[in-house]
Specification:
- Helices cover about 30% and strands about 15% of the residues.
- It starts with a helix and ends in an 8-residue tail after the last strand.
- It is globular, with a radius of gyration of 20 Å.
- The chain has a single domain, classed as Rossmann fold.
- The protein contains nine helices and ten strands.
- By secondary structure, it is of the alpha/beta class.
């Protein structure tokens, strides 16, 4: 009897989640149909924010960029999606069932994703793997998604800089990446590469991960991209291929002052018991001051303790 009750509860839970997702999708579709009428008036990427399935307002920003570039059937790769209940590409997939690849390391990924989207409807590939600098390109090549993409998104809370460095230049028209606003706007720094990097294992606070925005922008410039802005919470950065950036000339007039994109708008730090403790930027740097970062402004890649750089951050 207990087993039957559990099955019934799980079934109803899945049904309610799918109904809720459908409502979100329909509301998002209606919103975007109206918002697109005003896209030419936007002066800042953040004006486009709207959340359907993304973590914050990335859905709206992506729709704005795609609309500007005339992308209507988006071929994509997204690394770091969880169970796909909250992801940058889910609305894209639900809208057009276009070809894509999602990658994450969580257990039973495909089964968990299938509870949130209908895999039989489209061309969504699911890869249950931990990405590193040795396997990234071979995995993309296996799915024939290693070039000529419309969108590439990566959020793995750690080795993002080093993974991106290994990607083919101009791999996609649009590129979305996560950066660490705690690392400020002045320095080009990243955590050292560690194949087994895990954000909260490296430091209980969760403040030690990824790379600075300035480091990411320089790396992306070398890959053939221009920076066009971030989300409102200042942790996801958006890029387009250099030969497409003229479509965003009005919003790119205000992107040179990187300090506006590294103001800390998230306070998701944790204490050593795993509880949120809402540290500000100064406190976050102090708690991870003995951790090392790599300075990547030149080829020497010298390592520093964060406490030796705090005054510059």
């Amino acid at each position: 009897m207990l087993n039957l009750k559990t099955k019934l509860i799980n079934f109803l839970d899945r049904l309610l989640k799918k109904n809720d997702a459908h409502k979100k999708f329909m509301l998002g579709s209606v919103y975007f149909n109206e918002a697109r009428k005003n896209y030419n008036k936007f002066k800042n990427l953040k004006e486009a924010e709207y959340k359907v399935f993304s973590q914050t307002g990335e859905d709206g920003i992506i729709d704005f960029i795609q609309n500007k570039l005339g992308i209507y059937n988006c071929k994509f790769v997204e690394i770091g999606v969880g169970d796909y209940s909250e992801a940058n590409t889910r609305f894209i997939y639900e809208k057009s069932f276009s070809e894509g690849l999602i990658i994450d390391v969580i257990d039973n990924l495909k089964k968990k994703v299938s509870k949130n989207v209908n895999l039989w409807k489209g061309l969504l590939n699911v890869e249950n793997t931990k990405i590193d600098i040795e396997n990234i390109n071979s995995i993309l090549k296996r799915y024939n998604l290693n070039k000529k993409l419309d969108l590439f998104s990566i959020d793995i809370d750690g080795n993002d800089y080093w993974i991106i460095d290994k990607l083919t230049n101009n791999i996609s028209k649009i590129f979305i990446l996560e950066y660490n606003p705690t690392f400020g706007h002045n320095l080009e720094i990243t955590v050292p590469y560690d194949k087994d990097f895990s954000r909260f294992k490296e430091h209980y606070s969760g403040c030690y991960y990824g790379a600075s925005l300035k480091a990411m922008i320089k790396l992306m410039n070398s890959k053939g991209y221009d920076f066009i802005g971030t989300n409102n919470l200042n942790f996801n950065a958006f890029f387009v291929q250099k030969d497409l950036s003229e479509n965003f000339s009005e919003i790119m007039n205000n992107v040179n002052d990187l300090s506006q994109y590294t103001k800390l708008h998230i306070r998701d730090s944790r204490n050593n018991k795993g509880e949120l403790d809402y540290l500000d930027k100064k406190q976050r740097l102090e708690v991870i001051e003995d951790k090392e970062v790599v300075e990547v402004s030149n080829l020497t890649h010298r390592k520093y303790k964060i406490k030796d750089l705090i005054s510059s951050i």
